[in-house]
Amino acid sequence: MSGGHVKLESLTKRFDDVTAVDEISVEVQAGEFFSLLGASGCGKTTTLRMVAGFEPPSSGKILLDGTDVGNWAPHRRNVNTVFQSYALFPFLTVAENVAFGLKYKSVPKSERDSRVSEALEMVQLSGYEKRRPNQLSGGQQQRVALARALVLRPSVLLLDEPLGALDAKLRRTLQVELGALQKQVGITFLYVTHDQEEALTMSDRLAVMNRGRIAQLGTPEEVYNEPADAFVADFLGVSNLMDAQVEPGGNGKECCQLRLGDFILEAKAGELDAKGAVKLAIRPERINLEPYETRGVNCVPGMVERLVFLGSTTHIYVRLATGSALQALVRNGGDPVAYTQGTPVSVGLPADALRVLPDPGVSAAAIRDETLGEQLLDVTSAAPSAS
Amino acid sequence: MASVTGDPVTTSPPESAQYASRGRARGNPWRRPWAMEGFTWLYIIWSIVPIAIAVLFSFNKGASQATWQGFSTKWYVGRGVTSVLHNPSLHHAVIQTIVLAVLTTVICVPIGVGFAIGIDRWRTRTANGLNFVMIFSFVIPELLLAVALFLLVTQGLTFIKLGTPAEVAGLVVWNLSWPAIIVRARLVSIGRHYEEAAADLGASRFGAIRRVLLPLLMPAIFASAVLVFASTVDDFVIVEQVSSTANTQPMSVLIYSNVHGGLSGPALNALATIMLVISLIAALVGFVGYKWLSRGERTKGDVEALTAVAGI
Fold first, then answer.
1. Cα A332 from Cα A37, distance rounded (Å)
2. pLDDT(A76) > 60
3. Quick one: closest CA in A to B217, which residue?
4. Strand A79-82 vs strand A156-160: parallel, antiparallel, or unpaired?
């Protein structure tokens, strides 16, 4: 259980003429919960498979506690994988599945049994030893897969979308459990997911991947609050993106003046020294809706287009006078939401919440909609995007 | 529409009645499919009755294959007549058939399984070529293979003697497609995940095949073994060409060579019945065994077992 330090150096994987993973370099500390987040086809699973040993890297190094294991066979690496499909052996019982890998470690028979029951206890499946995988629910199978990997006490546990096949409610429960389990065992977790909520809630740090490269690497707070570019901003939850032009007025350090249609806005976050065409991003929860004709800095007139009630909050879709469509998130407190469709409002965009981002030239929305379209965001894609 | 003035339709009964009458004319979709059912029964009768009659006359008291003279098992076990048990050439044929079936199955299935795993893993142009060879025996006439084999063992590879060695060699080649195709189909449906999981948990390549892949392939291996066995019991063309003495003639050859003279009579029916029963038992064992071996998997058990045993 010692170690668990993973270092990827310019790791690259090419399949024929497709570059799935393009020179990524990451350092994961021992005992860290590290996520690779990205849409399908971004190279996150290929990266994980290279660490596991199922794919040889085209170039670059995989250093596991300082040793380059890039060309080692999977069974020689002290890492274990939890597969998306679980891959539990159907002809073995739960206990036999968990004990499978112990036969290759020099563990005496007596200790084997105690380790199996210990691992099953850890995933709260004591008493299920004699069952077969097909007699278990999806969530239970997932736990068996976890126990089967953890019983070997690997230095790194690789998880390939382990919650992908479960329903939303179970996924939430297991997210919490998995996070707690990782803290308990102290093993490095390398977690692959396309679900930004999963990545944000569980990880110590995460890397957002796009087209085989790492778009941003940081803590969940950093990545969410200070996205490096429009892709990351958009991929991590709903982000309102607007096309704007940098005006010469700002000082380039604390404040940046931008033109959005006929309006001049001030921004105090992001790349304040940018020039020319940029993207402006603001989180829905930071938008203030004021009564119409309220004046002030960064107030833009708009109109409510649509309201979506989400229980504790309401999403309000606003169309600005400049043509941009934005989403505002309003908490449902005691007062009922005073807006209806067609209400003119004044949209306040606080300067410290307005973030200037370099224009990546790729529509993140297009990539995001591919994978996350089924989530609550499908209303957004119906509204014309700012780009 | 009914509302159009002067339209003749307006004078006809209300719409619901119209639908009802059309329903009678075009048929209730849930009615009993008489035509289909009748045709199915005709087909079953057509294919089973001749066999049933042949089986029935193996129990005839008299020596006739056409006139029923009462029930008896003397053509199977009787003394003083040419019964299967006491006529040396008849019971030799039964033994020879079983020996050939067992030997062929034991040799053919492991080769076929290895062939399937190899071709599935070795993805090159050569492998694709071999893939075609795998379906060879479905394409070429069996007689061609039999004649070629005869020439080979009499002119070329004379160390393979006519009789049992040549028969087994021919049957193995002819039946190799069964395990190769059935096992390969299962390999494709299993995917690589289980093997990857085994390797991930510490199994070497060979260990993963032995501890994970083979158990998963077991239903297919078993089904193909049953098919090879049953198909060998039924085989005639190859064994007829390369059998040598009367001692190496299996049941099919003996029946064929005696049906127009020689040892005719209900004893031949008895021999054919034994052949049929062996094949039926093999199919039954295959069906039950496949279901048992693939228990614990979420599949349409019955249909899959049936198709596997039928060799689809």
1. 31
2. yes
3. A91
4. parallel
User: What DSSP string runs through A195-218?
Assistant: -HHHHHHH-SEEEEEETTEEEEEE
- Tell me how far apart the alpha carbons of residues A185 and A198 are, in angstroms, rounded to a whole number: 20
Give the full edge-to-edge strand order of the sheet including A59-64: A18-28, A6-15, A59-64, A67-68
- Measured CA to CA in angstroms, residue B21 lies from B13, B14, B16, B27, B44 at distances of 10, 11, 9, 10, 36
Chain B residues lying within 8 Å of A101, measured CB to CB? 201-202
Question: Pairing between strand A355-357 and A269-270?
Answer: parallel
Q: Are A208 and A236 in contact (CB under 8 A)?
A: yes
- The amino acid at residue A133 is P
Decide if the complex's ipTM is over 0.90.
Answer: no
At residue B132, the 3 state secondary structure works out as helix
Amino acid at A82: V
Contacts of B201 in chain A (CB under 8 A): 75, 80, 100-101, 104, 148-149, 152
Report the amino acid identity of residue B166. Answer: A
**Cβ contact (<8 Å) for B215 and A91?**
yes
What are residue A81's phi and psi, to 5 degrees?
-120, 140
d(CA A286, CA B250): 88
- Lowest average pLDDT, out of A245-259, B94-108, B174-188, B218-232, goes to A245-259
Q: Are strands A313-320 and A269-270 parallel, antiparallel or unpaired?
A: unpaired
Residue with tokens 């270092």: A7
What confidence score (pLDDT) does residue B108 get?
A: 93
Looking at residue A17, its pLDDT comes to: 84
Identify which of B284, B273, B291, B183 has the alpha carbon closest to the alpha carbon of residue B226: B284
Quick check: A373 pLDDT over 50? no
Q: What is the mean pLDDT of residues A136-163?
A: 91
Do B221 and B259 contact (CB within 8 A), yes or no?
no
Pairing state between β A67-68 and A240-246: unpaired
- DSSP code of residue A349: -
Q: Is the pLDDT of residue A375 over 60?
A: no
Question: What sign has the CA pseudo-torsion A65, A66, A70, A75?
Answer: negative
A39-43, A174-178, B260-264 — which is least confidently predicted? B260-264
Buried b (16+ CB within 10 A) or exposed e, A175-198: beebbebbeeeebbbbbbbbbbeb
User: How do residues B2-22 score in pLDDT, each as one tens digit?
Assistant: 444 444 444 444 555 555 555
Interchain CB contact of B201 with A (< 8 Å): yes
Burial class (CB in 10 A: 0-12, 13-18, 19+), B70: exposed
**Residues A175, A163 contacting (CB under 8 angstroms):** yes
Beta pairing, strands A59-64 & A156-160: unpaired
A307 touches chain B (CB under 8 A): no
* Structure letter (DSSP) for residue A288: E
Closest approach of chain B CAs to the CA of A113, in angstroms?
17
Query: Measured at the alpha carbon of residue B176, what is the angle toward residues B173 and B181, in degrees to the nearest 5?
Result: 150
Give the pLDDT confidence of B31-44 residue by residue, as tens digits: 888 888 999 999 99
How long is chain A?
A: 387
| Phi and psi at residue B123, to the nearest 5° | -95, 85
Which pLDDT value is given to residue B121?
79
